[in-house]
Amino acid sequence: MSQTTCIRGVDWLVGWDGRQHVYLRNSDLVFKGPDIIFVGDRYVDCVDIELSGKDRLIIPGLVDIHAHPTTEPIRKGITDETLSPGFWHSSLYEHLPVFDPVDDQGRLACLKVALAELLLSGVTTLVDLSSPFEGWAETLLDSGIRSFVAPSFRDARWFTTNGHSLEYDWDYEAGKKAFRKAQKIVEHVKNHPSGRLSAVVSPSQVDTCSEELLRDSHALARDHNLSWTIHAAQSVTEFHEMQRRHGMTSIQWLDSIDVLDERSVIAHGIFLDHHPWLHWTSQQDLKLLSDRGATIAHCPTVFSRRGIALNTFGAYLDNGVRMSIGTDTYPHNMLDECRTAVIVARIIGQSVTDVDCVDVFNAATVGGANALNRDDIGRLAVGCKADFSIIDLTSSSMRPVREPLRSLITVAGNRPVKDVFTHGEQVVSNGTVLNIDLELELTRLHAAQANMLNVVSKRDWKNRSDQELAPLMLKTVESI
């Protein structure tokens, strides 16, 4: 029999009133097994476990709608400031194919480090866009996080031979094979008995997939009532390539082939036809996204490092576009992403009124949940899953305590995250991840990065070393 746990007298609890998040003061949160059975004034029935909510803020588990945890952690200290002038300084085309794990052991170390970072920043649900490998789903399950596997597939890989023109190596049979493999994974996990594992259908990029592959994959998502996600409008290079091929933007083309709808999650949706870098002649994309009910997976950190930004978070909301938040890079810290989203939006919008913290918090919780067609995560109410984080209000980063949620986003970040529960099970205790040996995995990641750096020159179009592609900040002087 499942035990009943009551967190008694929570100082601040972000509850859900059926329409929006609200602050509840001195309330009880009660869950039995994976489900919340009570939120509100004093719970009077018997419980098996009682915990104190004094000096605590409880928030719903954050929903990371877009991440690449099997590749990104290995790039720490490498792609922070890399230059790619031929591609508007996007790192997609010259750097990501070069700085990539060399084997499954490297991918596994990346994954475990990223999962630990996510849990420590209050993430309880993850959409993992990865290429499938042995042990992938098992590792996600073992971590305790709620996972949506999104095995990637495509018809073409991109490459450059000169650093300024992008070419595509098309192999439609390989694309179909990868799609069939992804389909088997999706069908196997979508109703997993754990209750914590499901799937999202994930063609890789709008410019590397044929119309047939996109239509077939979208039909798979529709048939199984799953979300469908794709990278689109993520670079200036892609924008002009799609104009060259189809005479329309990526968003318009997706709409023209009937794959843009309420189950579509567009990552990253930056270079729409209104973006000032494009100086384009139409402004249709925002309305299309709104009319079709699609969701943007906004990942501000990785793009802001390259001087690239959504224009703007507030403008998308004002046009009725659904927004969610993802990590997409190291560190996998959702609270950092929320803070960056707020700051960048206000700078690009040139006004503090462009976006409020609550808008970004909504995107990181119910926005992601709605994109996954889930009304039982991303919020705390009776009938929802017991996915939540406990924030220590005695932490110096949270004091004085007047507006705790805004302080968490704008000041504290992940520092005061004390405990995290997913599906009613504790996965972080007193700031320590319970199911991952983070120190061990960091050691393994260090070794995996060294292995990767040994082959960089063989992968680069110009045979450049890692020091040439990503030089150190300072001159290095060796001691004699």
3D architecture notes:
The protein has helices at 104-120, 136-143, 172-189, 211-223, 236-246, 250-256, 285-292, 300-304, 313-318, 334-349, 357-371, 404-412, 438-453, 456-459, 466-469; strands at 4-16, 21-32, 35-40, 49-52, 56-60, 62-67, 123-128, 146-149, 152-153, 156-159, 167-170, 197-199, 202-203, 228-232, 264-268, 295-298, 322-325, 388-392, 417-422, 425-429, 432-433. With 480 residues, the protein is α/β, with parallel strands linked by helices. It folds into two domains: 4-60 and 381-433, Urease, subunit C, domain 1, CATH 2.30.40; 62-371, Metal-dependent hydrolases (TIM Barrel), CATH 3.20.20.140. Helix 10 crosses helix 11 (357-371). The protein is globular.
Provide key terms for this protein.
TIM Barrel, 4-stranded parallel β-sheet, 480 residues, Urease, subunit C, domain 1, 2 domains, alpha/beta
Tell me, what's the shape?
globular
* Domain module count: 2
Q: Determine the strand fraction and express it as a percent band.
A: 15-25%
**Residues in helix, %:** 25-40%
Structural class: alpha/beta
The largest pleated sheet is described as: 9 strands, mixed
**CATH-derived architecture of the largest domain:** Alpha-Beta Barrel
Q: List segments where confidence is low: pLDDT < 50 over at least 5 consecutive residues.
A: none
CATH H-level name of the largest domain... which superfamily? Metal-dependent hydrolases
